[in-house]
Amino acid sequence: FTKETAVFAPVSALLILVFVLKTNWRAKSNLIQYGMWVLGFIIWYAARSVASIVGSEADPRLATGLVERFPLLIQYIGKIFLPFNLSPFPIMEDTVYYYGIAGILLLIAIIILAKEKDWKKILAGLLIFLSFLVPVFLVPAAINTQTFEHRLYLPMIGMLIVVSQTALFNNRFDEKQLLTGGTLLIIILAVLNFLHQRHFKDELSFWTQAVKTSPNSAYAIMMLGAKLEDPAEGAKMFRRAYAIDSTEKYINYYYGAMLQYQDSILESERYLLAEKQRSDFVECDFMLARVAVEKNNIPAAIEYLENFLARAPLHDLGNTNLLQLYVQSGDLVKARLQMISMDQKGLPVAEEVRKVIGG
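The structure assignment produced for this chain is given below.
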């Protein structure tokens, strides 16, 4: 119920029933199954309508998503049959097409070479492959540019059905030849898997490989900058990401944080405000409070910290800073309430501050 892909599971199941298992789709014994599918869709649609942050109006960008992302079909086929260009964070712009073209030609060849084949099963497999990819095609690049390879897990069911009708299964090879070929294929795939899984061992490895394989992804570059221990190297990544896409979610926050680290506190304000307007990222309020203090605008700093702590109530430094600002502004009533709140949360309060407040 949390994945739009699941909506197409009944479609695929029906194709399997009719074209693969060759059952009578109009049989009365299937009516209960059809009813459960309809009930499942109603529950999913009702739950999604309540939970979704998207308005009820149709997003006009969805209409262009299919056209924009259709080339993904070629890329995905290439990654299924020739998985040599995998990426932990792929985007369409940085994925080559020649593996996909080669994969399509290979698929056509092994279908033609098969002496016995069931065209209905081939058609069903292709339709299942396409139906599970529909949610991917409908997501416009303006919303999400990632073309994650794990989205192929369900579509590959359809492709496996197609492959069952090719020369890979319908051939004249004896058992020894099939064992040799199968063993060789397993070894190759195992080596590819071993080499690829190294990129998932930790966050730094993941984002380093992501940037290497998707150099035009502002998000991947930004995240690598956030994981680098060297602030100077991280700053280079943030500037590079910002130059690629200044509207990328969180990039303005990281850019503003970078400027504050470099003591360009006032300069950071416009980036933090831009991120706050775009994503309302909670950390923006914490850093904007520092900007307000730099501008000697204590009331604004207090307001930012109050907003911040409303969503991050256990933040140690945020609570301490707010307490100090209350004292600095002379509002000992709020300072005393803040101190009590920190005591209840188990957060430390400096003794000298307690003496000033009188508690």
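Interim note for the steering committee: The radius of gyration is 28 Å. The chain is about 65% helix and 0% strand.
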